[in-house]
Structures are given as structure tokens and as C-alpha cells.
């Protein structure tokens, strides 16, 4: 790798992408709203129809990695769907600031068998950071199945502790970001951020102002 | 048609589907929130990737028709996408009552050339009910195109009046509903509503309680 490329790669990580800095700012201005971290995640089902559900944003993967993280149950339908088609788009609306982000990319599901040690550590870290109620749900009966009248005990298992290992059903969902759009309803501005890979192999985010 | 079928068909329209009645109740309980009518609409792009964006719910098509309605600009990317693949899923989160609805079905775009007179009337009715600011946007430069520095006049055309005919760019978006899921985060209940066509041809909505 040429020196220029190395410098650019390092510089790329010293500088937070504009869109990530904007999301941090939006989160800060909307933090009094309980649902400011709720986003809608769209994927494509195996029959080619879209699926859309609300999920909780669990933070960026790391200071150096701009992937968004969520959690899911290994028994949920979306795990199979993502295995067949990893493409996803998040819609994230911030009520206080009246902004929308659309974040497109590809999903990676990190389950108990994932061999990537950095992702496995992120999975454990996210598990530990969840509430007791959040961790307890991963011991519940299979999501989406007909609800059985019997066996109330199945819903009342004690929650695993934050230091207990994640249940096998617990998956980290990682969105590798390819493109971001921000729409500001107050000012009628709209910006698109896309990956710009330079001839030397370094990557930067290109910003474009587009019509709302 | 046998008498039993006629009675069932009529009864079907005298009775509002449970899921529609639930949405009315949720809208009522959340109406103090400015964004309670904002929903996320997922579709599939022509390259097979999902698209997801926030749109405003403009009401049910009529007392007798449970389709959801939205509006869009004929020049927006989703109009082409829907022509290729009409499948859609709405995610609708109500912050006050902590409920999510997922509403799956097929989209119909009603543009200025649509021949269906009932849908054309609905398009005009929706246009008239919009705010001046909402109607004005349909005269703006093409959405998604690079924003030109010149020509501030393009953004300042006076809004058409509520009694003026809809601009040609104005489209009504109709979601023909196939399946609905309601998730209640407070009580951890989840219900699925699906079309149940009986042997005599009449239709009813089947309700199923499923695991959250």
C-alpha cells in the first residue's frame, strides 16, 4: 500500500463521516423521546415481497466502524430472510427535529456460531448492555408461532443476568452502510451520502445536495 | 349468489374489520402526537433491494373500503418501483400506546391518467384536503435530482388552491391490505389478521393470537 493510501485510510478513521455525526446530533436533540432510537428496518422476503418492522438502534459497531447494530431472535423469520437476501433499508424519523434518515446497506447476522471474534465480542457486549426484560425475551417460546393457552411458565423464566453468556437465540444484527439520505422537513433540504472509493483505494463519503 | 353469501357479503361491510377499528382507536389515543399519522412504507426496488421511507397516512379509502391511502409525486422513484413490483409493507408505531402495526398488501398508484372514476374522485378529494404547503410541493423541481443553485423561483411558485384541479404530478397511493399484525409492547400480545375466504365466496378477517 502506498504511503498516500495509508495516510488516507488512517485519516478516514480520524474523521467521523458527516452522516454519522449528524445522527449523533439528532439523537442528542431527540433523547427526551422514548422512541428516538426506534427505527424501521425493511428487508425482502424469500417470495420477493418486502418486510418492515420496528427495531431498536443499539449503537454503532465501534468508534472505527460505522455499521448500525440491532438485535434479533435466531428463530424470527427475518434471520432466514436475511440469509437469502442481506439487502436492507432503515427509515429513521426524528419527531423533535423533523428529520428523516434513510440508511441502505447489507445485513450481517451474528449468532452463537459466528467465528468472527470481534463480532462475537460485540454480540456479548450488546447482550450485557440490554435490560433484564430485553434479555428475558430470548428465552420465550418461538416468536410468530400460534400462542398456546397452556404453559404460562414459559413466559416467566427468570431473565439471564448481564454477565451470563448470551442465550443461543440471541443474535446481533449489523447493518454495513452503503448509502445514507437525510431529509430535513423544516428547511426542505435533502442530502445524499455515498461511498466514494478513490483511485488509490481509499474511501471517503461524498455529500450531494438533492431536491426534496 | 346464494342468500347466505349475500347476507355474509353485506354483513362484511356493516362490520368494520377488527384491525381497522383498532387503528382508529390507536389514532385517537395518539392524536396529540404530531407524527401519529407518519408511517414507514417498504417496497422493493427494481434491483431487488428494499426501499423504506416515511409517508403520511391520508385515511382509509372509504367507509366500505379498508385500503390505506398516501400521496406521492409521479416523478418520485417509488412510482416506477411500484409499477414493477406492487408489494408493500407498512410499519406503523404508536409511541403513546406502544403498539406496532405491520400492514402488508399491494399498492395501486392513481395518477392523472387513471381511468377508475371512484379512485380518481378519491385522488381529487385527497388533493383538496391537503395543506397549501403540501399541494405546493407538487410544483417543485423533480425530487431526488441534484439541487441546482440557480432558480430560487422554482421553489416559490404559489400553492394551487384546494378547489383547483390536482397537478399532474400528484398521485394517490392506495394500499390494498392482505395481512395485518398488531404487536402490543405493554402487554406482550401479538395478533395476526388474515383474509379468510369462505367456500361461498364471502370474505372475513381471521384473527390469530401469536407469540410476540
TrEMBL record, chains A, B:
- Output the InterPro entries linked to this UniProt entry: Pyridox_Oxase_Alr4036_FMN-bd, Pyridox_Oxase_FMN-dep_Alr4036, Split_barrel_FMN-bd
Q: Taking every annotated instance into account, which residue ranges of this chain make up the domain Pyridoxamine 5'-phosphate oxidase Alr4036 family FMN-binding? A: 18-110
List every stretch annotated Disordered. 128-164
**Which superkingdom, per the lineage?**
Eukaryota
Entry's SUPFAM superfamilies?
FMN-binding split barrel
One Pfam family this chain carries?
Pyridox_oxase_2
Q: Name one GO molecular function term.
A: FMN binding
- Name of the protein in question: Pyridoxamine 5'-phosphate oxidase Alr4036 family FMN-binding domain-containing protein
Q: Which organism is it from?
A: Pleodorina starrii
| Primary gene name | PLEST007713
